[in-house]
Amino acid sequence: MAKVAVIGCTHAGVFATVSILKAHPDWEVHVFERNDTVSFLSCGIALWVGDHVSDPNRMFYSSPAALADAGAHVHMHTDVVSADAATKHVEWTDLQTDEKGACDFDYLVVTTGSKPVLPPIPGIDGGRVLHCKNWDDALRVKELCGDADSVAVIGAGYIGSELADQLSEAGKRVVLVDALPRVLAKNFDADVTDQMERAFADHGVELALGEKVVAFESSDSAVTVTTDKGAYTADYAILGLGFLPRTDLFDGQLDMMPNGAIRVDEYLRTSVPGVFAAGDAASILFNPTGKEDYIPLATNAVRQASLVGANIVEPTIAYAGTQATSAVQLYEYSLAATGLTVEGGAVRGLSLESTTVTENYRPDFMLTTAPVTATLVFDPETRQVKGAQFFSTEPDVAQAANAVSIAIANKMTVEQLAQVDLLFQPNFSNPVNYIGSVSMKAAGLV
């Protein structure tokens, strides 16, 4: 019977634990988590702030008790203070009792997750500068911003955009600040972001784009956010600047990417035998480029970690990689994307092209319909599909990103995607589905 230490337990930790116990029910699996919860769906924080969550307790899909029932030895409020990758020796401290513990294991599974990006900006640790990452952050944001009149949101990616949406809908005065020149600039090209910026303006959100924050100054009643172009005062500021791997525990022990993500192979094995990593702490295979990348998404964490049990003794099931497929609902708009944008390709050294169409998602003879903006990104040399983006008030268009994700994973060309059999029924689609329209245009067929 082998002994396993799973270090960290959000999405990857939960699924790694379950997969190991399913494959090896007689093994002794110890789970170490410094917080008092597991499996928190942090993507729901903004929705909870906007009172769109039925019960915040349902933002957890597992629990320490559920993992214990599955056969794990669960150590909550426990901080792993050292872990030797070579010897598998782990030492920890109970954060409630200060009791120390240590043990040798046969395998280590590193699922320590990520931490918020916190640049060395003066005042960033002020009392009115809030984070948006874990359950404790969610509680604080919900409590403090409920009575606030104004909020400055720093970062116009998914997290910041969702917060700006929900807070403005709740009647708060909101300023959305980002150093990049467009909202959601890493997720969508300008054909989509231009429309989203107009929507923010229509809902009263002040956009401070292309502005780098240089200081925060908190007082008893407000915080002033100073940028290289101006200053904005609000009751609170919320940071949504992205994430970095939380892997300090293994510095100098495991091979890592420059940002600290632990490098893993297709079987989730690290550079040290018997040590596995998954989720936000690990590198990932990004299929549009065929190279390793860092893409901290819950979907990636779940799919990686679910294979740990199958591969922990010997390599059995390879991880298939990711297209970073994602979506967000902002006001009445649904936005979904998969793969690369043109700009994202350029950052990675790829020269890509895109084609965009805007058309109604179903026939005009229906009593209601709505326009869809569909963008297809492709390699002009190989003709392979590399990405897609969709924007509409029709929520179901988000599923189109899933369809193109499959095309990218299978290295389809725009010509092949243009010939895929997509349904026509007036309730759901035009005779030529918008995925077909944009791929046919990219293929030069229309």
TrEMBL record:
Gene Ontology MF, one: oxidoreductase activity
Keyword Oxidoreductase belongs to the record: yes
Domain FAD/NAD(P)-binding, chain residue ranges per copy: 3-305
UniProt keyword annotations, A-Z: FAD, Flavoprotein, Oxidoreductase, Redox-active center
Cross-referenced SUPFAM superfamilies: FAD/NAD(P)-binding domain, FAD/NAD-linked reductases, dimerisation (C-terminal) domain
Domain spans labelled Pyridine nucleotide-disulphide oxidoreductase dimerisation: 331-430
Highest taxon above the source species: Bacteria
Cofactor or coenzyme needed: FAD
Family: Belongs to the class-III pyridine nucleotide-disulfide oxidoreductase family.
Protein name: NADH oxidase
Underlying gene: nox
